[in-house]
Amino acid sequence: MDEFGGVSRLAEVRIQEGESLENALRRFKRKVQQEDIIKEVKRHSFYLKPGEKKRVKEALARKRSRKKARKEQD
User: Fold this and answer.
1) Strand extents, DSSP E, 1-74
2) Dihedral sign, Cα of residue 61, residue 62, residue 65, residue 70
3) Torsion of CA 17, 23, 24, 29, to 10 degrees
4) How far is CA 23 from CA 20, 36, 43, 66, in A?
5) Residues of the chain below pLDDT 70
6) Is residue 42 part of a domain?
7) Residue 21 sits in which domain range?
């Protein structure tokens, strides 16, 4: 965390010689996705009480297990 409460690591892409802006933007988007920056920002955008966080986590686990069971059934 930096002094403003934001995410301290930033994705950085330097435009290479002769590279189009579209290609650089594509590389930047891929880098942001790989570093899970969007997920971190969403996670810190609002406060969840510990009990709510636990319920959300359990709900995701149930969802994953149902999906896994459905995959094994096919």
Assistant:
1) none
2) negative
3) -160
4) 5, 20, 29, 39
5) 1-9
6) no
7) 1-35
Predicted model pTM: 0.49
Q: Evaluate whether residue 40 is within a structural domain.
A: no
Residues 6, 31, single domain; the answer is yes
Q: Residue 22: what pLDDT?
A: 95
What is the count of structural domains for the chain? 2
**Region class of 39: left (phi > 0), else alpha (psi between -120 and 50), else beta:** alpha
Structure tokens at 8: 């301290």
Q: Is residue 63 part of a domain?
A: yes
Note whether 31 and 1 are same-domain residues.
yes
**For residue 63, what are its two tokens?**
């969802």
8 and 29 share one domain: yes
CB 21 within 8 A of CB 27: no
Do 19 and 25 form a contact (C-beta atoms < 8 A)?
A: no
